[in-house]
Amino acid sequence: MGWYKRRLAKSLWVFHVSGSPCNNCDIEILDLLTPKYDVERLGIKLVGSIRHADVMLVTGVFNQKIAPRIKKIYEQAPKPIFVVAIGTCTSGTCCFKDSYNIVPDREAVIPIDMYVPGCPPKPEAMIEAVAKLIEVLNG
Amino acid sequence: MSNTPGWLAFAVLVFPGLLFSGVVGLVIGWVDRKVSARVQYRVGPPFFQNFNDFFKLLGKETIIVQNSVRSLFILAPLIALSSTVLIATLVGLSLFPQLGITNRYGDLIVIMYLMMIFSITLILGGSATGNVYSSLGAGREIKLLLADELAFILVCLVAVIKAGYTFKLDAIIAAQQSNGMFFNSVSGAMATIVGLLCMQAKMALPPFHIPEAETEIVEGPLMEYSGPLLGFWKLTQAIFWVVMPFVLIALFLGGFKWQGIEILWSLLKYIVIVVLMILIKNTNPRIRIDTALHFFWKILAPLALLAIILAVLGA
Fold first, then answer.
1. Element at B200 (helix H, strand E)
2. If we measure between CA atoms, which residue out of B247, B248, B297 comes closest to residue B86?
3. What is the enclosing helix (H) or strand (E) of A18?
C-alpha cells in the first residue's frame, strides 16, 4: 500500500464544502489556487464533484441544520477520503460556542483528520496542513 | 512483422495502441497543464502528475449510483476507451508503415464512426447516472456533436478529394509523401484550420468545453463517475491528445517520416499542432451552445464547403 499512498499524496483532489461559514475561509481557499500560491505544483486540484475528491475541506460552524448535509456529502465520497477542517469555527466553534443550535461533537458527524485554525487561516497555513497530510501519507 | 493475430494484438495493446498512445497522451496532458500554468504565470504540475492522477484513480472506491442504469454506467467508459484505442491503432498503422502491418482494417469512414462512438458513449454514460447536471452535460454533448460533425466530415472530404477520391489513409498519406502535403494548397490550408477547430470541439477543450463546463455543470457527464471508471474517462481524454493531432497530420500534413532530419520535422508537426490547441484553449472563454452552433454551421461549414469546391477545381 505504500506505493499507492505515495501516488495518492502526489495527486490530492480537493472538494470544498461550505458548512454555513461567513465566507472568509472560502475566499482564502480560492486564494490558494491563484498564481501566487499555485497548489497545482503539489498536484492539488480543486474539483467540482465530491465523487472525484480525495480531500474534503469543511468550513464553518457545524450547526444542527448543516450537520446532516455534511454527513451526507461525506458518505457520497469515494473512500479513501480525508477531511480537513478549515478555520476557527470548524476547529473550535469560535464565538458561536454558546449558540443554541450548535453541534458540540463535530467528530461524531464525520471523522476529521486535520484542523487548520485561523480566522481565516492564511493560505500558507493551509499549504502547511496539506504538506503535513502528504508527509503522513508518505509514511 | 506481418498481419498475424499476435502482431495485431501487439499493435492494439502496445504500439501504436493502448500503451503508446496512453503514455504519450498522459505526457501531452502534462504539457497541456504546464503550458497553461505558464500562460497564467504559475509553476504548474510536475512531470508525472497525470500518471499519478491515473494510478490514484485506479485505487479509489467506485461508487455506482443507485438510480443509474448500472450496465450502461459501467460499460460507457470501457467502450469509450476501447474505441479511442482503436482509432489510435488504425491511424498509427498508417502513420508508422515501418511496423510492417498493412492497414487493411479501417479507412477514414471507420475513424469518423469511432470518433462519433466516443461522443455517444459520453452521452449514454452521462444520461445513465440520472443526475441533473450529467443529463444537462449529455444534452450539450449531443448539440456539440451535431455542430462539429458536419464541418469535420466536410474537412475529411477535402483530403479524400485531393488524394484522388480514396478513403484509404495509406493512400492519402502516400499521395502527400510523393507530391507534398495538402497543407501547401489553398483548400488544404483552409481545411486544416477548420479541422483544428473541429478537433478542439471533439475533445471538448475550451472554448468548446460546453458539455464539461467545470464551473457551471461540474464536468457534466463525468460528474457521478469515481475511481477506476473516472480514470478510464481521463485516460480516454488523454489518448485524444494523440489521436486528434495524428488524424490531422495524416490527412493534411503529410504523415511522418523517420529518416535523418525528417525525424525532427515529424516531431515538430505534432508539437506545433498540440501547442496551437493549448494556446487556443488558454486564450478563449467558453462560448454558449447556440454560439457554437452558429460558429460551426454558418462560418466553418461554408468555409469547409468552399475548400471542397476549391479541391475539386484543383486549387
1. helix B186-202
2. B247
3. strand A13-18
Instruction: For residues B256 and B265, give the distance between their C-alpha atoms in angstroms, rounded to a whole number.
Output: 8
Looking at residue A4, its amino acid is Y
Q: Is the ipTM of this complex over 0.90?
A: no
Q: Which residues contact A130 (CB under 8 A, 6 or more apart)?
A: A12, A39, A42, A44, A55, A84
Q: CB count, 10 Å around CB of A100?
A: 7
Cα(B275)–Cα(A6) distance, rounded to whole angstroms?
31
Q: Which residues of B touch A54 (CB under 8 A)?
A: 56, 60
Comparing CB atoms, the residue among B44, B59, B215 nearest residue A4 is B59
Residue B180 DSSP SS3: coil
Asked if A33 and A39 count as a contact pair (C-beta separation under 8 A), the reply is yes
Tens-place pLDDT, residues B30-51 = 999 898 888 888 888 888 888 9
Of A7, A78, A79, the CB nearest to B55: A7
Size of interface A-B (CB pairs under 8 A): 78
Per-residue pLDDT of chain A (139 residues; tens, 9 = 90+): 678 888 888 888 888 888 888 888 888 888 887 888 888 888 888 888 888 888 888 888 888 888 889 899 998 888 888 898 888 888 887 788 888 888 878 888 888 888 888 888 888 888 888 888 888 877 7
Q: Which of A10, A11, A40 sits opposite B44 (nearest CB)?
A: A40
CB distance B236 to B118 below 8 Å: yes
Indicate if the pLDDT at residue B127 is higher than 70: yes
Query: Looking at this protein, which amino acid is placed at residue A136?
Result: V
Q: Are B134 and B280 in contact (CB under 8 A)?
A: no
- Helices B186-202 and B132-162 pack at an angle, to 10 degrees, of 160
Dihedrals φ, ψ of A34, to 5°?
Answer: -75, 160
Query: How far does CA B300 lie from the centroid of its chain?
Result: 18
Which chain B residue shows the shortest CA-CA distance from A43?
Answer: B45
Our CA-based measurement puts residue A119 at a distance from the nearest CA of chain B, in whole angstroms, of 27
> Are A78 and B60 inside 8 Å of each other by CB?
yes
Show Cβ contacts of residue B284 under 8 Å, excluding neighbours closer than 6 positions: B206, B207
Inter-residue contact B180 to B163 (CB < 8 Å):
no
| Inter-residue contact B25 to B239 (CB < 8 Å) | yes
What's the predicted TM-score (pTM) here?
0.89
Q: Do B37 and A38 touch (CB under 8 A)?
A: yes
Q: Which amino acid is at B253?
A: L
* Residues forming beta bridges with residue A45, ordered by sequence position: A13
Which cell numbers in the block locate residue B172?
A: 492519402
Q: Is B289 exposed, middle or buried (0-12, 13-18, 19+ CB in 10 A)?
A: middle
